Amino acid sequence: MLLSQKFRVYPNRAQSDALAAMLRDFCKLYNAGLEQRIAAYRTRGISLNYGTQAKELKAVRAADDGLARWSFTAEQQVLRRLDKTFKGFFGRIKRGERAGFPRFRSASRYHAAEFRVGDGLTVRKNGRLGFVGVPGEIKVKQHRPLAAEPKSAILTRQNGKWFVVFHVEIAEVERRAGECIGIDIGLSSLVALSNGETIVRPNWTKCTKKGLRRRQRSLTRCRRGSKRRTKMRARLANYSAKVARKRSDFLHKLSADLVSRFAAIGIEDLNVKGLARGMLAKEVNDAAWAQLTAMLRYKAAKAGSALIEVDPRGTSQTCPECGTIKPKPLGERRHRCECGCDLDRDVAAAMVVHFRAFGFWPGHGLQDSSGRVAA
Ligand SMILES: [Zn+2]
Q1: How many angstroms does the Cα of residue 321 sit away from the middle of ligand 1?
Q2: pLDDT in tens, 275-318
Q3: Does the CA dihedral 247-249-250-256 come out positive or negative?
Q4: 206-219 pLDDT, tens per residue?
Q5: What is the pLDDT of residue 113?
Q6: Binning pLDDT at 50, 70 and 90, where does residue 370 land?
Q7: SS3 state of residue 23
Q8: CA atoms lying within 13 Å on the CB side of residue 352
Q9: Ligand 1 centroid distance, CA of 180 (Å)
Q10: 367 falls in which pLDDT band (50, 70, 90)?
Q11: What's the 337 CA to ligand 1 centre distance in angstroms?
């Protein structure tokens, strides 16, 4: 299983200037590669691929002092990235989807470079990073040890801050036995569990929404191209980044807690096509839900827990006691059924998720992750 580990890096002035120059050169290479593909198609009617472009890279570097400074393999990655963009474009065309032709990139929006670890990017014995063409070693805030020897890495710039993301391959762990749980995105709470627990929506979600709106408004009030507008844009970006950090911190803790307590977790599969939700609160939560699912997926794999994704259709309308379909209006916070079942609506939905994942209702049957046995 592939795991990404992200760390903040602290280059000094000379180093960050060099990194910025490197991204500018990579951006130029990307655009030149794109131009070459377009020209080849227009004049000769042929599509260039990665192989032909990479073959010319050596000669291009020999003629360009700028490019010759940096890692050869990292520059190959730039051409690979361009190739991927084209493949994605043609794939969408083939499937009959709307697709925009690959665009030239502006250096002010080019923020990432890929490296092979041990080649263009080396991790020194003292934990610092060395990049080909960048003076000295760069400090890394390694807030946790690397799970394994990384094979590849991405250097990114976000709001003027630098980060490195290592990709490490970790072995799958053997399944452990233990309790199962079904979870659902809440309407009134953030998450509801099939055992009746609900996790309250952190109150900062509301505050941040207000804060974002206020900053967005002041940005739109600034004149285009003005200094104030640039400043406001940076302020908005910083605020958004802070919100994102808070959310991901919260979700990390939540997913870690769930994985440590349960050996099998049932969850709604967001990828099911034709997902007819129509519930605003749920839609707003979807981004966070996708993030939580991703975190649960790798944490479960690391801990030997199972994550089972189920069809989400109608989970909030099925009675967990008698199975009747019972549509309820948005404002209805309770699930009340003729059979006498009276539950929090989100908990009821989580119980339905539990049933779909494991084949038995919570509290019935074998409480074992391997036991998909009905009671
Ligand atoms: Zn019922």
Answers
A1: 5
A2: 445 554 555 566 677 888 889 998 998 889 999 999 888 888 88
A3: positive
A4: 777 788 889 989 88
A5: 96
A6: very low
A7: helix
A8: 26
A9: 23
A10: very low
A11: 4
Output DSSP code: residue 121.
Answer: E
For domain 180-201+246-358, the CATH architecture is: 2-Layer Sandwich (3.30)
Over the Cα atoms of the chain, what is R_g? 25
The Cα 324–Cα 340 span in angstroms is: 12
Q: Which two tokens stand for residue 137?
A: 């070693």
DSSP, residue by residue, 49-106? -HHHHHHHHHHHHHH-HHHHTS-HHHHHHHHHHHHHHHHHHHHHHHTT---PPP-PPP
Of all residues in the chain, what percent carry a pLDDT higher than 90? 48
Gap from CA of 324 to ligand 1 centroid (Å):
6
CA distance 329 to 343: 15
Ligand 1 centroid to Cα of residue 340, in Å, is: 6
**pLDDT tens track for 34-72:** 999 999 988 988 889 999 999 999 999 999 989 999 999
Contact yes or no for 6/153 (Cβ under 8 A): no
Residues 315-366 have pLDDT tens digits of: 888 898 888 887 888 778 888 888 888 999 889 999 999 999 988 888 765 5
**Residue where the block lists tokens 């900062």:** 204
Residue 263 corresponds to which tokens in the numbers above? Answer: 């050996």
User: Side-chain half-sphere of 291: how many Cα atoms within 13 Å?
Assistant: 16
Residue 352 CB coordination number (10 Å)? 26
Among residues 201, 202, 182, 205, which one has the least CA distance to residue 343?
182
What pLDDT shows up at residue 311? 86
> Could you tell me where in the chain the CATH 3.30.420 domains are found?
180-201+246-358
Q: How many Cα atoms occupy the beta-carbon half-sphere of 60 within 13 Å?
A: 20
Q: Which residues have C-beta under 5 Å from ligand 1, the single-atom ion?
A: 319, 321-322, 337, 339, 341
What separation in angstroms does the CA of 195 have from each of 255, 285, 314, 335? 16, 21, 19, 15
Residue 351 contacts residue 320 (beta carbons within 8 Å): yes
